[in-house]
């Protein structure tokens, strides 16, 4: 006899539909003032971690955010392991780190889009220094295309390989070293985790995956492994200069990068100077802050999304879809506000690999 599918939610679920939100709302309302005071006290009592002589691994250290985070730790007297693919760029960053006060800087050329690359990068750093105190997961790539326009679908995986699996495997190999020192993970996520800006579908998904993975790891690993997830808004870097993967699977040329920045959705938000972002992110990590949205005004978008999803999506649609949007107007106004990377820059490190 065929079983009739039970479509009712059941008594317990129906009860929880009402009881759970009310309980949580009341709990949040009652505890918020206490938590606010507690956070303030904690902020005053908790001295930021002293990073002098601590061993810090930074992935994606050859440019942009990773480069500036390396400079921050260098200024704090940390010993550094800088990881990325472009060796010459890493050497230049290493030199600047030494100049800023890092007592020892190791460069580790590695492709973090592969599991072997992640393992070798972490193990080389651990072997060189004999310990790891902090691992900053930052290496990432982006694309600009509409999902439907993509001709080369292999690129989807390559984005996840670096942005998600690169973080996961580096964390996997780093954890045993961090356990020994009481060290920490610092995760560069993005506001893309909660702002589904068009033309960035796979990128946005990779950032949402990173967020959920490391929140789960936070619970599994417990307080012995502090995890700081920071979520930058738009920050000046090679990526936001227009170095992205295109719908046909190629990396953009400098000229294409310049053109792309005229697209709606690319550059509506104010651009944060990279050193300011790096300083705020490292400050959050040193205080073992669980999550930091930088700058914090982006949190209001998170609230809007939670409490009024219809208005949230309508606002994004108004901002980004079509030709005559505020995003497009902002783009036109900014014109060449960004400096595009040179063609030579674009060719380095296999950035035009798929074309050659
Ligand atoms: N810029 C923003 O507005 C913004 C906002 C939020 C979050 N983020 C995130 O910040 C991180 C850094 O990006 P960015 O903006 O600073 O861009 P960027 O200047 O393009 O830096 C990306 C870094 O990742 C490295 N990288 C890329 N693929 C790699 C691979 N397969 N193996 C090893 N390293 C690799 C690059 O080094 P090589 O090319 O030398 O390998 C470079 O050092 C990314 O995770 C990005 O998603 C950026």
Topology:
Layout: H1 11-45, E1 55-59, H2 64-75, E2 79-84, H3 87-99, E3 105-109, H4 115-129, E4 134-137, H5 154-181, E5 184-188, H6 201-221, E6 227-232, H7 254-260, H8 274-286, E7 291-294, H9 299-307, H10 309-320, H11 326-334, H12 343-347
Parallel strand pairs: 1-2, 1-4, 2-3, 4-5, 5-6, 6-7
This protein binds NADP nicotinamide-adenine-dinucleotide phosphate.
Polypeptide structure, described:
By secondary structure, this protein is of the alpha/beta class. It has one domain (47-355): Rossmann fold (3-Layer(aba) Sandwich), CATH 3.40.50. The protein is 50% helix and 10% strand. The chain has a seven-stranded parallel β-sheet with strand order 3-2-1-4-5-6-7, sandwiched between helices. Strand 5 (184-188), helix 6 and strand 6 (227-232) form a beta-alpha-beta unit. The longest helix has 35 residues, at 11-45. 41% of the residues are buried. Bound molecules: NADP nicotinamide-adenine-dinucleotide phosphate (NAP). Residues 60-66, 84-86, 89, 111-113, 138-141, 162, 188, 190, 232, 234-235, 237-240, 243, 349 line the site of NADP nicotinamide-adenine-dinucleotide phosphate (NAP).
Side by side, the strands of the main sheet go 3-2-1-4-5-6-7
How far apart are the termini? 62 Å
How would you spell out the order of helices and strands?
Answer: HEHEHEHEHEHEHHEHHHH
Which value, in Å, is the CA radius of gyration?
Answer: 22 Å
* SS class: alpha/beta
> Quick one: CATH class?
Alpha Beta
